Amino acid sequence: MKSSPSLLSLSLVLGSIACLHGVARANWEVTDTIPLDAVIVDLVKDPNRPFLYAVNRTGSEVLFIDLQLKTIKPVYVGKLPTSLAINAAGTKMYVANRGIGSGTPAGYQISVVDLATQTKTHHFLTKYQPVNLVCGPGERLYYNDGAWENGNIHNVAGQTGIVNLTTETELGKIGNFQIKSRMVVNDTKTKLFGQYVYDGNLGEMGVFDIEEPVAFKLDRHPYSPYPYGWDYNNYSISANGKRLAYGSVLFNANNLLIQYGVFPEQIQALNADGSVAFGSSQVWDTTTFATTGNAKSLLNHGLDSRLMHYDAAENCVYAFTHQGFSIRKLEQAPPQTLPEDEDADSDGLTNAEELALNTDPLDADTDGDGLDDGAEHLSGLDPLVANLQTAEMRALLLTLRRSPAQLELGSPIIWLEYDQVNLSLQLSAGDGLDNMSPLGSPMIFSHPKPDTSKQFYQIKAK
């Protein structure tokens, strides 16, 4: 097709919405960076002091990070520490040491650190190798010997021990349930959640009553059964104890059969009431599960974090990332009022249209897949769900950043790899791109893939 007053144009057609009020939008943002120059394996905020505690396994130390002075103090805690827990009084820190203590049976160590003096005072021995720790009620500490080593399952059979922190002696096990994952407890410290082993190698989610020294199982759910029932190690619970995230699923913590929805990524932390979930790369609004079936992205932070800690007192999240080996702080920004008829992020959708679609008016690519929200909306794709696309399709859609958007195709060939082709083609004529008039009605092309073995489809101008 030669260049002429008649051009093949792709027009973005969107419904009009009356601009009566501004669109209020509260968002999350990265507000601080704490460089560590170390890889950490656990991260906990002190409930009473302005300190973050980070476990540096290779350095056999816990980093005391002063959030006010921005200083870092390393404290040696024992060989190969893996996790830490703070007692209910907030006076002591307990650190699991993966390395062998005395080298004899029942010779593994849990170190005790005085948080006021920031020093290790002593350690006590445990019957089983401690990897994951969590503090329960009545000065009781729960530990297990884990299933993960450098991202891989290293141990199938294992044990879960209970320690009386007053006497620092073993109380026994949680029955015959071998919990292998990280563990979390609810707000009242009456329930413990974790993946446990049953019938040899298989495993499932478990909820355990820990109100009394003798614990027993309250609830179970076989998600997900393979491999070995602990595909993921990222249990997180809301501060009010009502929502539980495991893997990429949001559960009702009081009934595991109630599942609110599935995220497109792994969830590392939940906010106070579970209305916001913090994923490895995005922050999600979970309340939209009930209205749209999907969680709405609030921020594409792109940190690729596998270790996060939510601070309920400050309503913020601390996330470790390998990007600069640092900790990033995520906070909720003050709400902004955006004019409904403007396009704040220049993605081809007005702020009001973004509100109607549940997309982010301050992020041109809400789902972080490299395609602008407006372009995805035009092509029939869901701007809340990340899509794969070819370089040709990416280039085409990224061109559609305004409404109407036009693209001259000298010899148009579009390659698609979607399950359905859905394009709107509008022929326009004029003496320049700034002075175009449509000729006839748009031509709608919509067709499912007729053969699942076919991966590419071609559209040519004839």
Provide structural commentary.
It is a single chain. Strands 18, 19, 20, 21 and 22 form a five-stranded antiparallel sheet that branches. This protein has 462 residues and is mainly β. Mean pLDDT is 77; it is low at 1-21, 150-157, 225-229 and 389-418. The protein has two domains: 6-22 and 340-460, no CATH class; 25-336, YVTN repeat-like/Quinoprotein amine dehydrogenase (Methylamine Dehydrogenase, Chain H, 7 Propeller), CATH 2.130.10.10. The protein is elongated and about 85 Å long. Helices cover 6% and strands 43% of the residues.
Quick synopsis:
This protein is elongated. The model is unreliable at 1-21, 150-157, 225-229 and 389-418 (pLDDT under 50). Helix content is 6%, strand content 43%.
Q: In CATH terms, what is the fold-level topology of the largest domain?
A: Methylamine Dehydrogenase, Chain H
Give the termini distance in whole angstroms: 9 Å
Gyration radius (Cα, Å) is 27 Å
Coarse morphology: elongated
CATH architecture of the largest domain: 7 Propeller
Pfam family, one: TSP3_bac
Keywords: Calcium, Secreted, Signal
Subcellular location: Secreted
InterPro entries: Host-pathogen_enzymatic-act (IPR051200), Quino_amine_DH_bsu (IPR011044), TSP3_bac (IPR059100), WD40/YVTN_repeat-like_dom_sf (IPR015943)
Chain-wise SSE layout:
Elements: E1 6-9, E2 23-25, E3 28-35, E4 42-45, E5 51-56, E6 61-66, E7 71-76, E8 81-86, E9 92-97, E10 108-114, E11 119-126, E12 132-135, E13 140-144, E14 148-149, E15 152-153, E16 160-164, E17 169-173, E18 178-179, E19 184-185, E20 191-197, E21 203-209, E22 216-221, E23 236-237, E24 243-246, E25 249-252, E26 255-262, E27 267-270, E28 276-279, E29 282-285, H1 289-292, E30 296-300, E31 307-311, E32 316-321, E33 326-332, E34 336-338, H2 351-357, H3 373-378, H4 391-399, E35 413-416, E36 420-432, E37 435-438, E38 443-448, E39 457-460
Antiparallel strand pairs: 1-36, 2-34, 3-33, 4-5, 5-6, 6-7, 8-9, 9-10, 10-11, 12-13, 13-16, 14-15, 16-17, 18-20, 19-20, 20-21, 21-22, 23-24, 24-25, 25-26, 27-28, 28-29, 29-30, 31-32, 32-33, 35-39, 36-37, 36-38
